[in-house]
Amino acid sequence: MDLVPMFLYCIPLLCLFYNFWITFERRRYQNCYILDYECYKPSDDKKLSTRFCGEVIRRNKQLGLNEYKFLLKAIVSSGIGEDTYGPRMVLEGREMSPTLEDAIIEMDDFFLDTIDKLFNKTGISPSEIDVLVVNISMLTICPSLSSRIIHHYKMREDIKVYNLTGMGCSASPIAINIVQNIFKTQRNLQALIVTSESLSLGWYPGKDRSMILTNCLFRSGGCAILLTNKVALKEKAMFRLKCLVRTHHGAKDESYACCKQMEDDQGYLGIHLGKNLPKAATRAFIDNLKEIAPKILPVRELLRFSLLTLIRKMTQKHTKTGAAARPVINFKTGIDHFCLHTGGKAVIDAVGQNLNLSEYDVEPARMTLHRFGNTSASSIWYVLAYMQAKKRLKKGNKVFMISFGAGFKCNSCLWEVMRDLDQDGNVWKEFINNYPPKTITNPFLEKYGWINEEDPDTFHVPDDYVIP
Fold it and tell me: Where is the Beta-ketoacyl-[acyl-carrier-protein] synthase III C-terminal domain (predicted)?
C-alpha cells in the first residue's frame, strides 16, 4: 500500500522529466548546419578587364562627356579589380538587345557547374534533397528556375520548393531563414540553397546616372549551399547557425523607393539607386544591430555599454559642457570574424567604421570586391570562402554575416565554426596566395584619362580610337 502514494508522488516528476526530454530532443534536431558550400567561378573568357570595360562604355553612343567622366570616377573608386566576370551577351557586344535565352544560359552555366561540384564534394545525391530554395532576384521564368533544377537533377516529387525573386542582395539570410523554420518542424532533412543574380536582362543600356551605376558594380557569380539538421552529420558540418535577424523598412516611403527596378525616360529598364540609399541603409543597419546585439554579445559587454550610456546621459543633464563621446559597443567581444556584404567600397568602409573594425577584419570583404565584384546575394559566401582559404576559421569561432537589399532590408546572422577549416579547394584556391595585393588601385583613369581633355561641345566617341 505504501507504493501507491509513492507512485502518485512520482507522476509529476516523470511528467517533468518527459517534457524536459522532449524539449531536449526537439532542440537537437532543430539545429541548422552547413555541410558544405560551393562558390561559382565563371570561365576566364567572361572576364571584364579594365580594357574591356572601356570598350563597353564606348559602345553606348547615348553617353556624353559628363556621363563618361561619371563612369570613370565610379569605376576608379569602386574597389573592383581586373578579373571580375560579366554575362556573355556583354562580352559579345549584345548588351543593347539581350534575349531571354541569354539569361537562361547564364543561369544554366552557374547551376551545372556549382551544384555538380557541391554534390561531388559531399557525396550526397540530388534524390536526398528534401528542401530546395532558389534565389535569383532579377529573372522570373515559367517553369521556374527551381523547376529547372529539379528537372535536370531528377529530384523527388515530394521535395519542398521555394523560388525567391526580388529579394536583392540580402536574399541569402532570407533563404537560410526559410530552411531554419522548416528544420524546426521536421527531423533529418537536407536542404539546398542556390543563390545568384541574372545580369543579362538586368544590364542597363541607358544614360541615367542613378541607374547606370549598377553596371559598374554588379558582376557574375553565385553560390550553392547544402544544409541539414541531421544530428548524425553534426561532426561533418562546417558551420552551425546560432542566430538570424531580419529587418525590413518597406513601410517607409524613402526606404522603399531608394533601390528599385524601373524604366528611365527613354523606356530602358534598370535598377534606380536613389540619393537617400545610404541613409536608408544606415537606419536599417542600426535597427538590425539593436535587435541582434543582445542575442550574440556577452552580458558583460551589454552591461558595460548600458552603464556608459547612462553615465553620458547623467553627465549631459547636470553639466553645461559639450556632449561627451557617444559610447561604442564592442562587437568583437562576441564575434571573431565579420562577413560583410560587398555592396561597394563605400558600403564596406561605412560598416567597418560603424562596427569599429580593423583593416584585418574588413580585408575579406575588400578582397572579394576586388576579385569578384558585387555578386549580389552570393557576395557574403565569397567573403566566407576567402576567410576559409586564408585558414582563419577555427573550431568555435563565431562568424557574423550582414547583407543589405532592396525593400529596404538589412539581414544578419551568426555562425559557429564546427571544425578547423582549411582551403579545401574552394573558389579562391588558385590565387589566394596573391591576396591581399600590394595595391588595389584601378588603372582605369590612367588608360582613359584622355576624356578629361575633351571639349563638351565637340566631344564624340571616336570609332577608331585605339585603347592604350
Answer: 335-416
